[in-house]
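dumping this here before i forget
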Amino acid sequence: MAQKNILIVSSDEHGNHVETTLDSADDLIARYEQIGIDDCSTDLALRGFPVVRGLVGPIPENKATVRYETVPVFEELTKIWAATKTKRRRRTKAAIEAERAALAAAAASEESDKPVPAPLGIFKMPVIGPNETV
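structure:
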């Protein structure tokens, strides 16, 4: 387990988030009861960190910090994260028509005497006639 700072996020009586930074996992174990060791995190750097009673974690914060959250903070942040909508962009008809016109103009400006490439067969290789050699 690499040496990382541990960030504990909890909430005060007014609902504000309070962040406490610890220097090592030993400091975390001194404050909370250890109930296990993380051995199944998809982030391999988190494997071996303690799992403690009353906190959700370890959660990767950045390369130098591991995050633990109290259950109410975890639930609040998860609800906020789940409620955020991603803005979906849709092209307008004018943009689609402009793109089609630009493609048509580019195709018309190309020289028509360029050789046409051979059609591709099932294995993405040019189709060769019986009297042609490679």
